[in-house]
User: Fold this.
Amino acid sequence: MTMDDNKLTFDKITSDLTHHIRINKGFLIWMGFLTISLLICLYAYSLQLSKGLGVAGIRDYVTWGMYLANFVFFVAASLIGMLISAVLGLIGMKWLTPITRIAETIAVAFAAVAGLVIVSDMGRPERLAYVFLYGRPQSPILWDVTVITTYFVLSLLLLFLPLIADMAIIHRKVSTLPSWLKPVYKVLSLNFTDHPEQNKIINRAIRILLILLIPAALSIHTVTSWLFAVTSRAGWDSTIFGPYFVSGAFVAGSAAVIIAMFFFRKNYKLQDYLTDMHFNNMGKVLATVSLVYLYFNINEFLVPGYKLKRADAVHLHELFVGKDAILFWIVQIGGLILPILFMLFRRFRKPLPIMLISIAVLMAAWVKRYLIVVPTQEHPFLPIQHVPQNFVHYSPTLIETLISIAPFILVLIIITLISKFFPVIPLHETAREKGIEHIKFD
Amino acid sequence: MEDKNTPHAPNESETQKNSSRRDFLKNLGLAGVGVATGAAALYSGHIFEAKKDVSGDQKVLLTQDGKLVQVDSLEIKALEKTGVALHEVEGREGIPGRRWVMVTDLSKCRNARKCINVCQDAHQLRPEQYHMNTLQMQDTPATAPYNMPKNCQHCDNPPCVAVCPVDATYKRPDGVVLIDNERCIGCRFCMAACPYSARIFNWIEPKDAANYQGQDYNVELNVPQKVGTISKCLFSADRLREGKLPYCVEACPNGVYYFGDENEDAVTNGTTKETVRLSKLLRDNGGYQLMPELGTKPRVYYLPPKNRLFPFEEATDATPEKV
Amino acid sequence: MRFTKLLFIIFIFSFGTRLSAQTWVVPDDQKAITAPFKFTPEMQKQGEQIYLKNCQSCHGLPGKDNWVKLTPPPGDLAKEKAQIQTDGELFYRITAGKVPMPEFRNIIAEDDRWWLIAYIRSFNPKYIQPNPVAKAAFAGRTVTLAMEYSDPMKKIVVTATEQLKDGKTGPAASVEIMLFVKRYFGKMQVGDIKTTNTSGKAFFEFPADLPGNQEGYVDVSATVNDPKNAMKTTPAQANFAIGVPTLKPGLTETRAWWSTRGKAPVWILLTYTLSVIIVWGFILYIVYSILKIRKLSNG
Assistant:
């Protein structure tokens, strides 16, 4: 390979990965739509702030509703950053390079918003600081707050570190970079000049982060599962809730990544970088984690179903043939078993089919969280009596639904902004993998 | 401005004025801590400057209810804990040497619901908010139905307290589990953790909130209730302090409740006022606890619904309206 | 007239069907009793307070018909069914009680029970109080109790003395004695009722396992069992170190999951703090090294 070839290839890579960094009409319309939707949802939240949590459908028996289901879902989806970057990355799977930033973006967005979701469920959100002022180290909530904050910071750093080199390249080489972004890139690129010492620092930092990320990520979802598992309630009182939640999180996260890959590939014309091979491989990842999740599902339902202890029997009856049966079987069959079967075949791991499967899986993942959170509370140990009907059965209100939609809009906004103003695919790393060893800086 | 160099003894009227000012300060119902700290700092800052009874140095202070008041700097003292702060301290320490215990005799309950009414009145609760609720139970299809008053079990291994992130709900040395609604963040983890469904939440503005405005919060009564916070049975901690039986215990017309101190091995029936030995009562009548297998160690015992004084009737009371 | 007859029949019928609503007969001599004083508005006011505390929970407010639906029905005391009774009947029923109505003999003092009747009568405009009959000069026994703890016998000895006709005092035999020990919410009877012997003494075994205070002291009192109020009695009180010394620690001594933050189990405190310090130490180190990148540029 001659020097010229290299230069050519490098220029092409740079242009391919950065041509979308500009404000266009589509972006404005999309952001406008998101902003207006968010404002509507924020109005709903302002009603809740002034009137109390009573504007939602939750009451004394089902006290955790959609907000909590949302929270668990968001924590779950954020876990993918750890799976893709840390676990698979540390093993040394080279094909993952173009996906790592997508995974990290999703991790950062969902982790950041998970923190907000939990605030929407608080009766006294203005007392949030009490968790830090008076925090009890015996409460899983303190652990949850701690690990989510930690995981968010770790993910943000992991997103930022590989970006340093990219931004250094782009603000010097890319003429199409919007002028207002240039100073931002310049400051954030920290005078990076591909100095060996600089690379050494970055590589070491990334390695530390990847190692820290594994326990942190396992903690956030294990601790989130403990919010339920430390109680004695039927359906929550389970010793495998930690791994059950973690494996479920990988399913949701992988699906989210595949969906994001599909749209970035299409919108930002990244077909040369996010190839069918990547979708095929991600399909295998999704199938694998789904199988693991299925395994935990079988454990979670078969074991109590075998014994049918009093409260468990009621719980399982409602799920299998009772009030929640339709949702339950749609989720288990449509969101888990069928996708696994489909994904065994190569032709369903092509971009479009795997994206459609992922959407089904992701939606099922949300409903699954709802089915974990709500039904248990509808049948406590002692009967529910002498209370209004709406205390007995939970049904979300419109305001509650709007407030629950807000976090999704926020996640979309964050992902849109990050992917719009930074290269979706790591530039510096891709160039190196293509054999471009030394990139000239000035 | 007075002559700063002439110290003089306060005359009678001045002393009176001083003490009335002091009372005024106390009456502001300051929650001590915050203002007191500031006041103490102000005081120590100026004490060297003026060693006389009236310094003439007027300080402007912000009272807890947001008013600005002008006070002579020498009048400013670190206050004894009063009002809310006092309740906070007492309410967390409990009554020394006691271990409160309740015995509910199911054979006597006929679902009169007097306990519920008096409790809801005392604790500013709406009809659907129960610290104490009478449930119609039937353990198996073959066994007879019975009424079971159910309140917080004040567990010695309280799952609700364990999960509280901010020490808002806590167990006292005398066994009572209380909730401090000035601390509660409204996460409702305790409600999820309680196997007895004993906790309630103020989903909307509490009942008659306007009537309670400005009233000092009493953690032993949990009044005024606060929107967005938890409420629960308190074993009427405010009444225990006065040597009185809990509201529900005293209101029962049928002699269902016994209440007392486990350390004294005695419980008193709220209706007949008869005091009996706790250990004997439980031994002779087959006393038991609700779901002891959960390891919660309740402080409420039940006597089985055997030889019932009243026939079981389906509860006819109307279900409270939707809230 | 026919209507009242019908009512009467229904009344009788309901008596027959309701198991627990048996007749509640008041002895004739009790019926005839009248209050020892003339009712005054002041007494009615006092009576109202007693009523609100002790009676309202079942009977509701007089004239408001808001009594609790119990079996047998407590009824509204302003109504004829109650007001038709003599003062003596009312007094007897309050004093003696009958399940489920409590016996107020030892709960409401005698005069207070009359005040209560004064209050109930204030709802009956037709009521004319019979002339008060001042209590006849007391002819019964006048008994004074004394109490001591006999160490050799390990028993509480209650000695009853009475005033004899000749003005002297002597041992009171055949007096029924009840022994109580003070508890937080009231007095608890210890053992059964004992009758004094010819030397006026009754012996009570004190349970060996009854908790006392920190030093084992218990407040004991002895009273005469005199349900008919036939005697003038003076109870005895004493403080003996015969209980089990009880100093149980508070229930929050242990470090547990449910303890306050200050009493968190040490290993949780350590694990939590160390994990946070270690992880955030690394994070700070990374941030610090990122800042170093700036200084290392080529050139």
User: Anything to note?
Assistant: Residues 20-121 of chain C form a domain with the Cytochrome Bc1 Complex; Chain D, domain 2 fold (CATH 1.10.760.10). The helical segments of chain C are 2-17, 28-31, 41-54, 56-59, 80-83, 87-96, 110-121, 266-295.
